[in-house]
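Below: protein 1.
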Amino acid sequence: MRRPLAATAAVGALAVVLSACGGGARPAANESSIGLAPPSSDATTSVAPVPPSSPATQPSATDQATAGPASNRCTAAVLAGEVRPADAAAGNRYAKLVVTNNGTTPCTLNGYSGLQLLDAAGQPVPTDLEREADPGPSRVVLPPKAQAAANLHWTVVATGDEPVERPCEPEAARAAAIPPDETQPMTLDWHFGPVCAGGRIVISAFYAA
């Protein structure tokens, strides 16, 4: 299922509609898991796990059990995000959505990011975001300069009625990602070509990186 997204100027306006909540997640096939729909902290679907890549060499994030006092939620205002390539095999592509806390105080992530592919003009590119349950949501506290990651998995093989003699879907140049339980997106570069199967991307919850 796809959800059209307006041009970049409209992303902020949509944030009012896309207010996130921490519970009551719906199945991956419905709109709560598509594109920039509200990311929540509960997984409701399970697909083939995407193995995480080796931990980054940045300072480690810690979970709430060792982090001390509760922290504020991580927002797009304090996070810097990027998509890092991982393994590729037999038409499958793997990557990690990595976020860094650029703020001066710890912040907390718990759950899934929203994600919408965009072309060079900021127009939406077909995106069908599906949550996986491994790893599922857990509270991750990011000290300043620490990182968290979410696994991404998609196919580059044309599916259904997608063309095989040209790109299966329009190619994205950027992506908009909303941290869990937030409404304002980060803008990320996308250098991975078209995403086939209608823009289907499987995403895990954030974990300490």
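Below: protein 2.
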Amino acid sequence: MKKIVVALALVVSSAVAWAQPARIPVNDLNTGTNNKPNNNTTNSPNTTTTTSSELKKYSDPKGRYTIGYPGDWKFDDKSENAVFKITSPAENGEDKFFQYLNLQIEEINSGTTVDDYVKTNMDAVKDFVKGYREVSSMFFNRNGSRAYQIIYKGKPGEMTYDVQIKQLFCVSNGKGYVLTYLSKEGERDAYETTANKIFNSFKF
């Protein structure tokens, strides 16, 4: 399970990079650019279509998942540290903190249960997040499989302020999925409802 621990460390360390007040996206550290993705899918294998007045549907070209996201959120499937990142727009001209979601997918042993997967990952999180405190957690049925959702707060890595992290853990067909939403703790989250809709739209 060492690989699982390393994968989750990337999720949380990615959160550190994205949540700094300077607000430099991970990809910008390597490319110096932050261009919005081209959602024109005429000649693209990545199917992005409007599913409602609020969400667009993205279908993974490898057939592993689908997810919806609002058209004014930035969708990036070229990240080195996650399968994708979906970043909120600024709430106003003074907003320097952007909420975001990301997804990790990894190959795992066929006998690994979601309970095993959660325990290994959360043990690593508790070591990595200073002042870790759980807000809520539950196992439940999702897409016909047992899944786990948790919300917790703390300071990941070298962060100097608390964030709130919501994560969904799923295991299916030899793959582990971790969907993460990060927001700033102690502030009203204007995008919480939208983030919940994105979470609910995720299918694997």
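Residues 1-52 have pLDDT under 50 and may be disordered.
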